[in-house]
Design a protein that fits this description.
By secondary structure, the chain is an alpha/beta fold. It is built from 7 helices and 7 strands, in the order E-H-E-H-E-H-E-H-E-H-E-H-H-E. 43% of the residues lie in helices and 14% in strands. The protein has a 7-stranded parallel beta sheet with strand order 3-2-1-4-5-6-7, sandwiched between helices. Strand 1, helix 1 and strand 2 form a beta-alpha-beta unit. Helix 1 crosses helix 7 and helix 4 packs parallel to helix 5.
Length: 237
């Protein structure tokens, strides 16, 4: 697998930070985006990451980002859409603003980035380039408390199907649908116990599982247009 730069969105913390760090420590170039400043960004920059502030609710930010990437890179090894907003339907936003905001982040931004930067993926020197959308297991079952979020992530999964068809055979396009990769430090014990009981394996997946799945897809020459579940058997409970 020939290395090159991969665009990873939302690298300021948790999954995006872990992916960016793992890519960099293996000598793979990273172009990372972040919405807010986080202390860990200094670490990524020291490791060689190219970082750009980008608020995916702002169309101008996305336009600026893809323009910069096109000007600074002749090719890309991959694009990983990790940036996400987890908002419930009872948040302070009115319903029309909520669903518009979530679709901007999970659908409009990936659609624009994929369309505009796909020529760079097609120029990758290796056999394949990759687009990976980080989705959510709720797209397969819905959510009564996060309907707008689930709908936007389901639309993102549909982008996977369409872009897989459009960009084959050079670019593989897949989604990963995780559940309970890692608790937040502030999560109370009763919540943790209830969440763990929802899967057959009864444990956190760990951010390493996401990293391994991403590398599995990058290394594969025969998987495209798929949504890979990463849920510890949660669908069977």
């Amino acid at each position: 697998m020939k290395t090159g730069h991969t665009l990873i969105t939302g690298v300021g913390r948790r999954a995006g930070l872990h992916l960016a760090r793992s890519f960099l420590t293996r000598g793979m170039g990273v172009v990372g985006t972040y919405r807010q400043q986080h202390p860990a960004l200094a670490e990524l920059k020291a490791l060689g990451a190219e970082l750009h502030r980008c608020d995916f609710t702002n169309p101008e930010d996305i336009t600026n980002l893809v323009s910069i990437v096109r000007n600074q890179h002749a090719s890309l090894r991959g694009i990983i859409h990790n940036a996400s907003l987890w908002l419930s339907d009872d948040c302070e936003l009115p319903p029309h603003e909520l669903i518009d905001t979530l679709f901007r982040v999970h659908v409009t931004a990936p659609y624009q980035i994929n369309n505009t930067l796909s020529p760079l993926l097609l120029q990758h020197a290796g056999d394949y380039a990759d687009i990976i959308h980080i989705g959510d297991y709720v797209t397969a079952r819905g959510s009564k408390k996060h309907m707008a979020y689930a709908a936007s992530k389901a639309a993102q999964d549909n982008l996977t199907l369409s872009f897989a068809q459009k960009l084959a055979p050079k670019v593989k396009v897949n989604s990963i649908a995780p559940a309970l990769l890692a608790f937040h430090d502030s999560d109370p014990e009763d919540y943790r116990t209830k969440a763990l009981s929802k899967s057959l394996l009864g444990k956190e997946g760990g951010l390493e599982e996401l990293e391994h799945t991403v590398q599995y897809l990058f290394n594969s020459g025969y998987i495209t247009g798929r949504v890979l579940a990463l849920d510890g058997g949660r669908h069977l409970r």
